[in-house]
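ok so i was messing around last nite and threw this chain in just to see what happens. nothing serious, just curious
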Amino acid sequence: MKKITNKVLWIFAVGQFGWSLLAGIISSWMVYYYTGENAVFGSSITGGTLFLGITLFGLITAVGRLFDAVTDPLIAGWSDASRFRGGRRIPFMKVIAIPFALITVGVFALPQTKSVVANDIILFVTLMLFYLFMTVYCTPYNALIAELGDTQKNRINVSTFISFTYIAGLSVAYLLPNIAGLFTAALGEANAVRLAIAILSAVAAIAMLVPSFFIKERDYIASEPVKTKAFSSLFKSFQNKQFRRFVYSDVIYFFAVTLFQTGLAFYITRLMHADDGNTFLLTVVMTVVSLCLYPVVNKLTPKFGKKIIIIIGFFAYAAVFLITSFCGEGIWWGYLIAVLAGVPMAILGILPQAVVADIAEADALTFGEQRSGMFFAARTFAMKLGQALSLLIFTSVTVSGSEFSYRMTAVIATVCCAVGAVLFFFYREKSVMGIITSAKKPTDEGEPKGESENTQ
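result:
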């Protein structure tokens, strides 16, 4: 096997830029352009609530998570058990990158018939395909985090690199209104927005293909196909007590962060009374602050461990969201929030992936079966479940469009981050790392040592 270098890890990280850019377009701008005062496409779909305070987006995302509950483990099981010449992961990424980008454009371009009912159905179908294609790309991609992170150093490095490209992708997604503004006079606002989305999606597709063409998986990873069936493998993953403890807090993390991402443009326009073009500038500030703190996080992690630093990240996000709930007029509030948000962004952008990789490695060393695809599929499902709940709550809470309703979303995010921090206290990092350390030390009989407490 060839040595895994930082160059390989950086090439791998480019793919994260691509899929996070597409995810950022959906999470940050879909609700913004389809609902509220700034809705460019609002008249094309059902507005307001459908029943029991549930909106169209809330219903779509709720059904979508039931869809994910089936597709996520199936794709993970397929990837874990695959025998493709190009590897267990890369072939999936190569095939789906372009369809993934195209369906992102379709979410905004296709639901534009004269029938509102037809548009609702089209929007539902395109979003289901978006989440399916995200699973097909992200599940194999995320599994490579554990497999390319073959040492603790490489694991922290790859988590750092993909954290950078993840934030970069989200930041570029916030450029959407700025790019659309260049074409509005010539094309009109709606078509300008669609063109901007198409441009960003094309960039994302190229980025997602970079690791597919420049990393030969079999040169770096010696992996055996998993024989366990998909849903049995998923069940085994959730039998792991430490993984369950991680997932509980991770769902809450994605819920709170997506609530903030979805609301950011509204916070700027409705609470701070500033232009939505400031969204990108604030994201740049958050990114720069976060990048400056990456070396600090990497230096402190070996000393204090991932657990305590992640808990600090949760409480830091809670503080940021609490300040957001009280913000007033003036973009200076936005810059204050952006600077403070850089701290938890650095922490929670790097370390959670490394935690999943640790758990996957400990499980493989204990049971002799590398099922990293399933562990990361479960995390992907947690991400999408958190995002779905966030869209459901955000669109339901803000249906009135009042300033108070937007402040309430920030309050909800605050409480959730505090709860997430408390839940993560129950994760036993020493147990997981103990399995990895002891299993790699040969016993007198020459067999690896291990323990099963981690999975009981």
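not much to say yet. The chain has a mean pLDDT of 85.
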